[in-house]
Amino acid sequence: MEPIIEVKNLVKVFHSRGRKITAVNDVSFDVFKGEIFGMIGPNGAGKSTTFSMLTTLIKPTSGIIKVSGFDVDKQDDKIRPLIGIVPQKLSLYPLLTARENLELMGNLYNVPKNVMEEKIDYYLELVGLEASADRYTGGFSGGMKQRLSVIAAVLHDPQILFWDEPSTGLDPQTRSVIWKLARKFNDEGKTLVFTTHYMEEADNLCDRVAVMDSGKMVALDNPESLKESTGSANLEEVFVHFTGEEVRD
Amino acid sequence: MTIRTELRDSLIVAKKEFKILSRKKALVIPLFLFPIIMIVFFGYGMGGTVKNAPILIVNDDTGRASSFLVQEIGNYSGKYDGNPMFSVTYTKDMSQSEAESKIDAGIYKGVLLIPHDYSDSIAKNESTSLTLLTDSSDTTTSGIIVNFMKQLLAKTGSVILNVPNIYGNLEYLDFLTPGIIALTVFMGSVATTGSAIAGEKEDGTLVRMLMTPVSKRSVILGKTIYQLILQLARAVVLIFAAYLLVGFHMNGSWLIIALVLVIFTLGGVGMGIVMSSRVEDMESFFQLNMLVTMPSMFVTGVFFPLSSVPNWMRYIAYCLPLTYAIDAMRAIMIKGQGLNAISTDLIILSLFAIVTFTLGVHLFRREA
């Protein structure tokens, strides 16, 4: 299996009000080309920080991340065109219409105009938003925003799609649409990396699941092996096995 | 990342800003109307007072009457806390044009020229005339000086006071308008830049945009292009409104005004970026904005001449960039002066722009 993301000895330290917080503590792993890779872990485990470093938003304190062979520290501008990001905070301009939001994203990714219009129409129909294309997104429901954000992330046909908590706060119908989309993108050859709090989602979608806790990666394998090795019936039990019962801050 | 892509990206950002602005009707209208309302209300409603206004007396006469007059002006102390209204300097043998240039340079607010035959004429009870030059670009001070002289001479009798208007017939409105334009551009560029960024931080759109290949330079440049167009448009609308509504006299060059406003807007945008980098949401930004821009509004001499404020206030004013923008705008718009007269202002404003912009680019982070 060919790695598309290589992470070696990754560390991220934040300094806040004189306190030193090690959010990610010596983490190493690879993500293989074409797989769906999930990250789970309790709040404060370091998932989001890792996610932000993988997507070039913040720089590692130490360690190496290579995405498609490029170093996030020095070649982040080479990486950004190759990846698509669906952030947890669905960030759309409320005073722009759905189509205008998509056009803005397409333009910033330098997608040729004719290709872009075609794709926008195709994807809007695919996610069932064609009737709302010319409405301001300020009035959209959470599910509509999630669907629109996904389109915004794939207009430039990225190799890797990063997806932060795809189905948090969504109804089961939207969640099933989101899962179908994820599989469709994966079938098209895209590598998917996402974080989630839903064990069912990780179990259903992921080829491999990484369990993070207190800044460390405590387990990484496919869902079946994780269940077998810990003698668990489902991922929920795997999760508790590795991270304990204690409630986190 | 080539310059072409960066420019292309910044135009995409600028276009987006205009599109969003055009949909914020509740913002567009006040943005243009607020300064016009200020001119109308303050222009008709306010006056001012004078303290320690520098006055030059050119006395070419050696007789008794003139020394009596000079003494009386020198001894006059105003009603405000015992502070004298004027600080008087004496000289002789100065031509009117030389005196005018002293006023132009801002050294004196008024120059009284006493002819060599003044005392003789008074002694013979003949009619004689004095010439009083005032800096009429400072309408409050010059009005008070003229009134004071008229009252004083009324006691002496047959003296005619000539008051040539160096800058044409000016009113308080003419004094006010350049200041309001500078204030409008300052508050506008700081507030709209800063609040837009703070808002985009709050709803996550800024981070989302910075996840794309667009560079932060392009984002800042795009926002700057948008601000330059917006603020210049506001200034032009304001000047025309002042002309139509209150008969404002525009004496100077549009090009130099544009230059001052472009430099000043850059500084304002930089300051907005710096301020927004210190806050996480819009509400905090507006509180911070209040703290930073309010003193500028009242201390820098938008509504009254700096010569009439206490020293401590004047020293604060000299630390605020708005003071220099107002000074430059008045020099151009009222006095019709050129680049030479405002070179100090321009240097200080450029420094302001360079410092805030450098700091802004540095503090504006890609990180969430």
Quick recap of the structure?
Chain A has 249 residues and is α/β, with parallel strands linked by helices. Chain A is built from 9 helices and 10 strands. Chain A has a single domain (3-243), classed as 3-Layer(aba) Sandwich (Rossmann fold), CATH 3.40.50.
Helix content of chain B: 55-70%
CATH hierarchy, class of chain A: Alpha Beta
Average pLDDT of chain A, to the nearest integer? Answer: 91
Q: Using the 3D structure, state the CATH architecture of chain A.
A: 3-Layer(aba) Sandwich
Main sheet record of chain B: 5 strands, mixed
Largest sheet of chain A: 6 strands, mixed
Q: Name the largest protein-protein interface in this structure.
A: A-B, 26 and 24 residues
State the helix count of chain B. Answer: 14
Question: How would you describe the shape of chain B?
Answer: elongated
How does this structure look, described?
The complex is a heterodimer of chains A (about 250) and B (about 375). Chain A is an alpha/beta fold. Chain A has helices at about 45-55, 75-80, 100-110, 115-125, 140-155, 170-185, 200-205, 225-230, 235-245; strands at about 5-15, 20-30, 35-40, 60-65, 70, 85, 160-165, 190-195, 210-215, 215-220. A six-stranded mixed β-sheet of chain A has the order 6-7-8-3-9-10, sandwiched between helices. Chain A is globular and about 50 Å long. The N and C termini of chain A lie far apart (about 35 Å). Chain B is of the alpha/beta class and about 375 residues long. Chain B has two domains: about 5-45 and about 170-365, no CATH class; about 55-160, abc type-2 transporter like fold (3-Layer(aba) Sandwich). Chain B contains 14 helices and five strands. Chain B has helices spanning about 5-25, 25-45, 65-75, 95-105, 120-125, 140-155, 170-200, 205-210, 215-245, 255-275, 280-300, 310-320, 320-335, 345-365, and strands spanning about 55-60, 85-90, 110-115, 130-135, 160. In chain B, helix 1 crosses helix 9 (about 215-245), helix 7 packs antiparallel against helix 11 and helix 10 (about 255-275) runs antiparallel to helix 13. The radius of gyration of chain B is 25 Å and the shape is elongated. Classes of the chains: A alpha/beta (about 250), B alpha/beta (about 375). The interface between A and B is medium-sized, with 26 and 24 residues.
